[in-house]
Amino acid sequence: MKQFLIFTVKTLLLLLLLAVVLDLLYITVYLQSSDRGKVDYIYNSKGRHYDVVILGSSRANNHFVAPLFEKKGLKTFNFGMSGSHLFEASLMLKLMMERKYHIKNIILETDLNLSNEKRDDGVSAKFLPYVHQSKTIRNHFSQEADFQKLLFIPFYRYVAFDSKIGFREFYKTATKAPTTYLAHLGYYPLGNKKGKMKNNLSNLKPLHNKYYEEIKEICRANNINLIAVMTPMCTNTKGIDYFKKVSALYPEIHNYENAVEGDQYFSSCGHLNDTGARLFTGVIIKDFFNK
């Protein structure tokens, strides 16, 4: 019995040591990367200057054509991330401030994402390799139910979110496998209609969202001009009065829900194709940057 206990203790200690070694190996690789995705592009950088930064979900990532801003002489990057919520948009901006970015204007897609204050596990996992190195990331995750496990159990976060930051991503990061996330200054163009051309927003309710409030406060504190916008939806959308509810809750958010009309400009009901995105971006540039 004694030998069995000794064997068990040694095995557990060996597993713990292996977890610590793997944790250190993974973070060493991730700290060397700045071109796999938008999170490491920010984290492993310092002091960038932008005239326009774009934040939000896929409805930012697919809707704002960053190169069109550049043609106007505005240094721009689209940091929108598909699947993300305002939880991640707020953390992206906090990281930019931690990394001493200088930003004049932020365009924030603020519409459907106002309806929740949850994190998106797939997107938020991209921040977790740096949770020990960044006080900003630790503070942002500190109220999450699994925070203690993410912070204190070695290698846990890589196992829990294996599909996003586990071995496959570790290997691709180590071998510097290329991605398209940073192409076109962060803008991701969509093709012609592929998804369903109808949507139902009837069950959505905009919240007095704490992460939107955080973004507003950061912009005030750093003299950044915040342009919050609602972006287009296709014609066949039920519950379209959701956008009026947003306007009633936050009058400062500009409603561009019907700025581009015609299903030929959409890839799916909630996402413009490249032609539609270029039309929409032209409207935004005209309304806010012509002067």
TrEMBL record:
Q: Does the keyword Transmembrane apply?
A: yes
Give the record's keywords alphabetically: Membrane, Transmembrane, Transmembrane helix
Which domain of life does the UniProt lineage start with?
Bacteria
Where is the chain membrane-spanning? 12-31
Q: Which protein are we looking at?
A: SGNH/GDSL hydrolase family protein
Q: What is the lineage of its organism?
A: Bacteria, Pseudomonadati, Bacteroidota, Flavobacteriia, Flavobacteriales
